[in-house]
Amino acid sequence: QFLSSIKDVRINRKSMKLIIIFTLIVAPTWASDQISSNFTHVREGKSTNNGNLEAIIRGTFIDKKKLPGVPNGKGQRCIQKIVQVQETEYDRGMSCQHTFKKKCHVTYVTDYVSAPERKCETTFKKNCHITFKPMPFNAQVKKCYTPQNHKCEGEPEGDEICKNVYESHCETKYKNYDLEQDEPLCEKKEELRCKNETVKLLHLPEDNEEGGIEPFAIKEVCEKWPIQSCTVEKKNVTKVHPKTECKKIPRKVCTQSNCKVVTGPEVCHEQTQTHIQNIPQEDCDLEPEENCRVESALVPKLIPKNNCVKIPKEVCVPVKTNPRQISKPVLKEWCYNPKDFGKIDEDDEQEQVD
User: What domain of life does the UniProt record list for this protein's source (predicted)?
Assistant: First the structure.
């Protein structure tokens, strides 16, 4: 009834301040019937205590030093009040349900598949580089030539006649070769050879009852025969191969008319010559070569597969049952600022001036 009275009253801003202070501070000290009767007069437009609500409130605060409430250290005064509040109370519990949850995970199964595989083998190739290095060596050479001699009939006389003749000059070189050849290795042995011979036994009488066979005996006769046993062995031998080169060398020969040129006997002599021979030198290295081929092989492969299991699960939710209304005391603390009273008086004075 008190709150409805406030809603029906149309007041200005200054009156609203007074109503709030009056409601929070003064109203609890009044009797409920007095508050109700005063606001009833205000709602009906009647004069109460000099004819307005402000007069009622101003008349109530006689001494500002005796304002109700306890200071809270913040410039305010607070009043504690116990209020009965209606609340709904429930019986609280838990409601649980058992379910099964399907949980899956991925596992891998090993399988084997055929796949081409490259297999390689390493071989080595001999790569050689041959160079020739000139080396001096001494060789024995046989040189022969056929001289052209003068043969005259008597004393040389007459005009001198010249002509070209050719002398044969031959040069024989000996070249050595190292060869591996088979050579027989023989030795003489004596072999014992035996044969059987029949010898008549003359000192024994003949057996006429058995057909007249003369008695005999078999005797082994042996002889020693000379034989030659040979085996073949390989030996390194040096062979000398002569190489002869001949050439005709022209020579101018002058003789008298009664003489002629005849070829004389061959004249030879040994001579040591220094020759330059290119000796081969071989420089080799090994180069690796990779030979590859494709073969089929079994290769392991992982195949994903889902594996699912059912896992029991308990789902619980809180529940409220048996609702009921209960009255519960609540301690409320109302605080106000005492300076608000000074502001009200100042507003009154300002209004009177206006």
Answer: Eukaryota
Nearest of 155, 82, 19, 147 to residue 334 by alpha carbon? 82
Taking Cα atoms as reference points, which of 7, 98, 144 lies closest to residue 310? Answer: 98
pLDDT digits (tens, 9 = 90+) for 167-201: 888 888 877 778 888 888 888 888 888 888 887 77
Model confidence, pTM: 0.28
DSSP string, 4-17: HHHHH----HHHHH
Burial per residue of 160-186, b for 16 or more beta-carbon CB atoms within 10 angstroms, e otherwise? eeeeeeebeeebbeeeeeeeeeeeeee
| pLDDT tens digits, one per residue of 62-83 | 456 677 788 888 888 888 888 8
Q: 170 and 247: one domain?
A: yes
Q: Domain boundary residue among 265, 281, 297?
A: 265
- For residues 251 and 339, membership in a common domain is answered with no
C-beta of residue 201 within 8 angstroms of C-beta of residue 217? yes
Contacts of 209 (CB under 8 A, 6+ apart): none
Report the domain count for the chain.
2
